Amino acid sequence: MKTFFHPDQLLHAPVQELHNGGFVPFAEVPARAAAILAAVGDPVLPRDAGMAPIAAVHDGDYLAFLQVAHRDWLAAGRHGDAHGYAWPVVRRRALSLDRIDARLGRFSMDASTPIAPGSWTSAYWGAQSALGALGAVLGGDPAAFALCRPPGHHAGRDYLGGYCFLNNAAIAAEAATAAGRRVAILDVDYHHGNGTQDIFWDRGDVFFASIHADPRTDYPFFWGHADEVGERAGAGATLNLPLPQGTDWTQYRPALDRALSAIRAFGADLMVVSFGADTFAGDPISQFRIETADYRAMARQIAAAGMPMLVVMEGGYAVDALGANVAAFLEGMGG
Ligand code: Q9C
Ligand code: ZN
């Protein structure tokens, strides 16, 4: 299977993040991508499909903000990476104000996603990698792998968060829909894919299923509960399957069966898999107990759905095991 990746995806390198009350080294490091490449081999460079497919998912004012945010941060006399600290949540209006701190709050959902000088460029090429891999699948490859880094599934139409800036899976799903495919997104990252859910919340033409740590105990807390099923035309086209901390493969597998039956019932003819290896037993920020060999079984079960597969990289922070975990998953997908 082809891997799509652009070297500029390594430019994004924030130094630290706010975690449980203090600053710690940033977990979503460039070495993640290097570890995956070392295990899966040489990538294909995505071509540049431009802004149109990105703007089909994200708001123009958000995209404009992302491109200037770090420059404006420096222009305000700040140093290092840009962080927000005030948010228009809980019934406040999302006013468009000039000050960089106001805009960081306006366009983000958390304080764990610093913006560094190379963040926009890396996010842009990450989205292009997703579109490149989609192109391979639309061209007849049974499966393709988009090594998206930074990840995407926490980013909504007009907000960043959870180490994510552009929602790579959603951008690919939207482009696939525009190409006439009936798309299901299966999100198997440890964390709920709140951004993807938000983007397709009221749409009936894209199915979203997510298996993740129960948001009662885990980030992103405010999304991913079992009673969230979509609204309006999207009512019933969102499926959330939260699982408790400590879940291992034997407990995970029945949830995956449920998600795959729902996707089959929806009549999908193309699947976008938001794949996070942060369900791994050794992940430093997560609490599931999936082992390396289990990823092969997980991918085989998904591939048995029998439709073209676009695998989009999301999280996974045990850098030393990441290459083996991703390689096992891709092998189960059919190599
Ligand atoms: N103390 C992905 O896996 N960390 N994002 C919150 C909690 C955010 C993970 C800090 C975790 C985001 C793509
Ligand atoms: Zn995650």
Automatic annotation (TrEMBL):
Domain Histone deacetylase: 44-332
Keyword field contains Zinc: yes
InterPro entries referenced in this protein's UniProt entry, alphabetically: HDACs, His_deacetylse_dom, His_deacetylse_dom_sf, Ureohydrolase_dom_sf
SUPFAM superfamilies per the UniProt record, alphabetical: Arginase/deacetylase
Record keyword Metal-binding present: yes
Cofactor(s) named in the record: Zn(2+)
Matching Pfam families: Hist_deacetyl
UniProt keyword annotations, A-Z: Hydrolase, Metal-binding, Zinc
Protein family per UniProt: Belongs to the histone deacetylase family.
Protein name as catalogued: Acetoin utilization deacetylase AcuC-like enzyme
Species this protein is from: Sphingomonas jejuensis
